Amino acid sequence: MRIGMLQPKELYKVDWISQLPDDILVDNILSSFLSVEEAARTSVLSSRWINLWKYTTRLKLDGDEQLAKLRQQCMSRRKLIESEERKYVRRVNRVLRSHEALALKEFRIRFALIITDHASLTRWLEFAFARRVESLEFDLLDSQYRFPEKLVSTSLVDFKSLRSLIFRNVHVSNGPIEFFLRNCPLLEKLIVCYSSELSNLRVCGSSSSSLVLKHLEIVRCNGIKSIVVSAPSLTYFKAATYDRLLLENIPMLVEVDVNRTDDDVSLRVLFSALSCCSQLERLRLTLLSEEQNEVLSKLPQLRNLKTLVVTYILQGSESLARLADLISASPCLEKFVLECEWGFFRKKDSQVKDVAINRHHHHLKVVKFCGYRGGHIRDLEFIEYILENCLVLEKLIIEPSASKNNTIEMEQSARTNAKHQLESRVPPHIELVILQVYLGFN
Q: From CA 229, how far away is CA 260, in angstroms rounded?
């Protein structure tokens, strides 16, 4: 059809999309922008589209988001939950039986209820691996499903196409993970969450080649005792508290997110490992407070760190001195965020003031304090320390403390108290921002 032969009004009547080649429709419209169900429904647009969805290279098989609320609200209605599980399994099986593409760019399973049909889960994995999947995500909930080692130990499948692997609530052991690391030369992202099978994990390449891994997360894996990481391309690393963490040959590491107990030994070991990372710019620390008020021993310095976020799980006896030491260990720090959360076993707040600390910070420009309560000595001491020691501070951001049980009146009271306490303390050349409290009502 020649466009020049059409009148302007006729141009709007032409179905330009249906005139695109099949490969353009499948790869750029059906695969990239639509879910499997939406792609299948496009068959009503044209008889030519009836089977095109079967060749989509991205299968995103997500359960209904409302199912998470169903699980929270209706655990006593077990039959209803089991019915939703069966519906989801049948739906996925039906899609896979109809699917005809020879290769997959993405295969994603996300379901907010427990799947007890483990045989189907294994078949879904086999389906994805047989089609040389590039991105695989299994995101289950409270699953007892264990990754079958036979899928890698006896398989004739070529895993060299795999670029991203995400297992959440899939109990996978060291063997399969280390197999993927050795046999997937393109693997750039690895995430394992809530696996009880990992123990002493080595994230290292083979003797003949190093890893190209860029993103690594190993969290909520309660059985794990140690991790050894050697990945020259790694830029992001997230891990929980482990007895032994050895980082070597990670020159490109830019961002780290770790959980630690707030004790001298644990923090010194962590900072010693990270001090060798010359590119490290962002660090997030989640610290479980210990019963101690002493100043930290001098920590190894993170000389290029620009942003430090500390989430403190408080017990009531924390010392400002320890935060000062964490900030001082990063001489080029430009942004510091303190997020205060109360631990489950909360102790009585300590009302003993810290000894005055003077440690000037020459680059810190932005400080954010989340969980400010104002009526407690620790909060005001921290603000006073920041104002006195951050010589180039430009902005102080305060997010007053609130919980889901707060009323709108309590929210306004928290903001009013913060404003009353801080406006007179903050010099006019520093911008003071007091945020609205998000209460999280459903």
A: 18
